[in-house]
What does this fold into?
Amino acid sequence: MKKQIYLLGIVGLMALASACSKSNGPTPLPPDTKPPVTGGNVDVRGKITKDTHWTADKVYRLRGYVYVDNNATLTIDAGTKIVSNKDSSGVLIIYKGSKINAAGTADKPIVFTSNETEKKAGDFGGVAVVGLATGNGNHAVLEGGVDGDHQTFGGTNDADNSGTLQYVRIEYAGKAVNPGDEVNGLSMYTVGSGTTVDHIQIVRGLDDAFEFFGGSFNAKYLIAYNCADDDFDFDDGFHGKIQFAVSVKDPMFTDNKGTTGDISNNFEFDNTSDAKGYMLTPNTFPLMSNFTAIGPNNAAGTSADYGYNARFRRGAKFILANSVVMGGQKAGIVLGKEVTATYYKTGESGVKNTLIASFGPNYKLDDIGAAILDAAGFKALVETRDGSQSFTDAAAIGLTDPFNNASPNLLPKTGSPALAGAKFEGSIGDAFFTKVAFLGAVDPASDWTKATWVSWNR
It folds into this structure.
């Protein structure tokens, strides 16, 4: 591992001077030489194959793809900063069998960010964790151009432990290798329930904020802010639980869709691709409570590539409960493909005790025959069977200032229907879920989105 770490302090400058005539870059430290414990920046590249510790007194710069492999554990101290320049778009991949121990704190988050003076989405590649839990094989390899030794994912142990991610912020991520083949802010590939994931913010990403490919891990306190594509993108059989999560969209910022016909959404869930017929198992089936999703709401300059608050399609099952969904540009809640609609009709899926106010229609069906479910029947299931409410005006939901993109205030105001009414029944009654009274992500008595680890106005 020491052969991949280069110091940019005094020792590093000496090494660079001695190696300037060589074609393979700076001379590495000898294998047994430890970096100095004082300040300095550290360049990291290639593979990390033994337990490694990154400390907050240094800044770590990723040069291209960095793989934590060979069952190694990468420990990152609270307050540590990891950066990348746009020439390499560094990507950190914790490969299956290895672990990350990134336990920041509210006052000292671990921050992955751009090292450019003028920071832009895509300067930093992203973070990917690859575990040994189950997936359904919809994707054969990791997205984003990883090397041949680190492409496969999936396993059989849903209790697998890939480590800890707490109080982590990932800024200016996203790396487009080919159309439809990108690195996201945080990608989780078949990560197991033994993994600890909470208090994560993705800021100004070039592609998806969070994308989960299979796996069974659970998470709380997630924020996707001003990312260009989908904020919560689940597929390949992801079947974990999530509570207290926020999605806020910049109306003018989407990624380049080219001629794909793709759109950007707060949620996009798939089980499998069209070619694979939607029925692979395990099924994509997240259980979610207390989300607040804020779309563009037709603000001035809204990108034509914005789509829906929530797009559930291609055989995905889901429960979305006790949430607030606002400002979807083309529509609010959308079901795509007949098998997805059938799951909703039979009650396997549901949008429960949720407040919905889209700029476009609140409900939409896509590629679903009326014999399976029509628009009136869908609305009745959501609002009668599942106890949700829809509004024609987002102001009726009564959040304080949800469409102020620079500083969104998601607190319910006095008289808001979001102040009460949460229900934790059936699968949402699981012990994982904190039983609160309010709807949406933010407790009216304590706004966690204004804590010091969270960053707005980017």
Residues 1-38 have pLDDT under 50 and may be disordered. The longest strand covers residues 58-68. The CA atoms of residues 239 and 382 lie 22 Å apart.
